[in-house]
Structure formats: C-alpha cells, structure tokens
Design goal:
Blueprint lengths: L1 H8 L3 H11 L3 H10 L1 H4 L14 E4 L3 H8 L2 E6 L3 E8 L2 E6 L10 H7 L6 E10 L9 H6 L7 H7 L2 E11 L2 E2 L5 H11 L8 E4 L2 H13 L4 E6 L9 E9 L3 E11 L8 E9 L6 E7 L5 H13 L1 E5 L2 E4 L4 E5 L2 E4 L7 E4 L2 E5 L11 H11 L3
Parallel strand pairs: 1-10
Antiparallel strand pairs: 2-8, 2-9, 3-4, 3-5, 5-6, 6-7, 9-10, 11-12, 11-15, 11-16, 12-13, 14-15, 16-19, 17-18
Length: 379
C-alpha cells in the first residue's frame, strides 16, 4: 500500500514511509501525498504524545548467525516483557503500549522513574517487566496483567512492581533522531537516564564474547538477546534487517488463519490451529502448518470463544477466521515441505501462549522463517 501511494503521488517511497511512521498510519499520509505532494508530507513531524509504531526485529538462528549478518553489533538482553514507548514533555509523562494505546495510569512507576530525567522533550523505546527479588522475571502473564486494568493500581503495583529498561531514543530535546545511527541513539539513552533504566548492552564482533553475554542473559531468566547493527536507523513499524532476535528455543509469532473442531475429549472446542507467517511483500499470510499441542483446558475454552468471534466461514469441521490472533509457537526445527504454499513446515509445533499485545502486522515474516531454516543447514 505504501509503495502504491508513493507511485501514485510521484514521491520517493522512503519519504512516504517516514511520514507514515510519524503519523502512526497511512490514511492521512495518503491524502496529503496525493493532494499536496512532498509539501504535504512535511507536516507529519515526530512529536511528543503522538506515539508511533515500534521498530521490530527479524530472527537469527544463533549468535554466530547474527554476527555474520551484522558484523560488529550491539547485543542487548531480550526481555519477556511488554514493549512501551514513553513520552516526556516538561513534567508530563505518558506511557503507550505497542498498539499505541495509552497506559500511563496503569503503570505509574514508569512515569515516576523518568521524572528525574532533566531532558525537556523526550521519546524513549523500552520494555517493562515484572522481576522477582532475585532479578529473574515473573511469567509474562504477570507483567501483562499490570496493563490490563486501571483499577486497584496501587495494590497491583505493590504485588507486582514493574521495572523498565530503555534501549532506544526517537526524540531528544525536541529533535527527531530516528535517522541517527543506532549506536548514537543508544549513547543518548545512556547519557540521559540512570544506569538502572538502561538495558544491559555489549558491543562486540567477537563470537565468544557475544555467546557469553547471551548465556548470561539466559541464566538470568531472559529470552535471549537482541543484536543490532551499529549504523541502523530507527525504522518505526518495520521489521528492519538491522535488528535480529536470538532466542534459546525457537519460537515464532504466527497468525491463526483457521481452526478445526476437536474430537474425543476436545469435542465442542476449537482445537487444531492453522498457522501462518506474514508475507511482507504481499501483506498476506503463508501457512506453515497446524498444531493442537500445548493447550490447557483453560486455553481451549478461551480460544474457542475468541476464534468464534473472528469467524468468517466454515468448511466442514474447519472454521476460517479473520487473521488477527497472534500465537507464540515453539518448535524443534523448520523443514522443507511441499505440503504448504511457502515450502516450509514446523516440526513438533506447540502453542506457548497467545500474544494479545501484538497485532497480525507484528507477526514473524517468511524472511525470518527462511533465515532459521538456512541457519539450521549451516548455510
């Protein structure tokens, strides 16, 4: 769609993409581009209290793969928390989630943590997470529960206080720095914030050092690491090649395309999920396989109600649904397979959890699937 708007308006796609990033969507940008050309795009500036879609990451098979693709890179802990975007203007601070909804009232400790920062106008990207006294994370659901209610906030805060770690800066002192190099933006974060608010980071091109950092992150209970190209700009709303995620176990965030009614003990529940990855070129989804594994009775009941609300049609025992629900799927490996349109299938796929904090546009792409497959083959 973005490419089509740029072509229709006779504008460089990069300029339309940058305007869409700042506008938080395409409709207003399309109208301005078609009616006013490049001059119309100039009014879409990055400003506080107007959140933008976060930059996303592709997947690397392991640390060695990340170094081969990026060269010298910044490695950061990959936390199993909730993505947050914090905006500050003077004494006013607002916190937004990855779907651009404001959550300030539910997470007062994040705003409190930033009040000591002297920067007048600031936009930061980070992750909020509930940590145990020993520093290891509580389950993701515990962190997510803090964002689900605006009631009894202080009681919830006392029970599960949140920590926040920032890893990027989009705007500093009122200046848009998304086009600056990643290492420069991180230096801004480190300069402006207390150390306990900054994600731990190692810059290296040494495989042993990067592997040790990764293993330390796992030992602390985190998912793995993020590897970031030192010269990468901030590509809001895009799954940029400059950010790679490396996890201990292979997982992909996939979209439920359809689901089958269960049998036997699962009769009356929607059970077998049809799963797809995002095709970044077409905007559609490519099926990678099915799974009914990893589901508790509670999950089966929830997903039956949820997926029926997304139903579009039925074919026998198969219920087709709008591609909106994202599930985190664990698997042992990716295999070449002529059975599915994309040419790949997941081996021993099972549901780890649903990601209600993510939209279908946040799903992993076929490029990530191919990267994992090639990494398994050592190519």
């Amino acid at each position: 769609m973005l490419e089509a708007i740029a072509k229709a308006a006779g504008l460089p796609p990069a300029k339309v993409r940058a305007a869409a990033m700042r506008a938080g969507g395409l409709p207003a940008v399309a109208q301005a581009a078609l009616a006013e050309g490049e001059a119309g795009l100039s009014r879409f500036a990055l400003t506080v209290f107007h959140p933008v879609q976060p930059m996303l990451a592709q997947t690397a098979a392991d640390v060695a793969d990340a170094l081969e693709r990026l060269g010298k890179a910044g490695f950061e802990w990959k936390l199993d928390g909730v993505r947050v975007q914090a905006h500050k203007s003077g004494d006013e601070i607002r916190v937004y989630t990855r779907d651009l909804n404001e959550a300030t009232s539910a997470v007062p400790e994040i705003a409190a943590a930033l009040r000591a920062c002297g920067e007048r106008e600031l936009i930061l990207d980070g992750e909020a997470i509930a940590l145990r006294p020993d520093g290891k994370p509580y389950p993701f659901q515990d962190t997510m529960s803090r964002f689900g209610s605006r009631l009894e906030v202080e009681a919830r805060r006392a029970e599960r206080p949140l920590s926040v770690f920032f890893f990027d800066c989009l705007l500093a002192d009122g200046k848009d720095i998304t086009g600056a190099k990643s290492e420069e933006r991180f230096a801004t974060v480190a300069r402006l914030l207390p150390r306990d608010l900054v994600i731990p980071r190692l810059v290296t091109d040494e495989p042993d050092a990067a592997q040790a950092f990764y293993e330390d992150a796992l030992a602390r209970g985190h998912e793995g690491v993020m590897a970031k190209a030192l010269d990468a700009p901030y590509e809001a709303g895009s799954r940029g090649a400059g950010w790679l995620k490396v996890k201990n176990a292979h997982t992909l965030d996939l979209v439920v395309l359809a689901v089958e009614w269960g049998s036997g003990r699962r009769k009356g529940w929607l059970s077998n999920l049809h799963l797809g990855a995002l095709d970044a070129e077409t905007g559609g989804f490519v099926m990678l396989g099915k799974t009914f594994k990893g589901m508790t009775d509670k999950m089966l009941a929830w997903q039956t109600e949820k997926l029926l609300s997304l139903e579009t049609s039925r074919e026998g025992h198969v219920v087709r649904v709008r591609p909106e629900l994202v599930a985190e799927i664990a698997f042992n490996e990716i295999q070449a397979s002529p059975r599915y349109p994309g040419g790949y299938a997941l081996r021993f796929a099972r549901v780890k959890r649903y990601r209600e904090d993510k939209t279908a546009r946040d799903a992993d792409t076929m490029a990530s699937v191919r990267a994992i497959y090639e990494g398994q083959r050592g190519s």
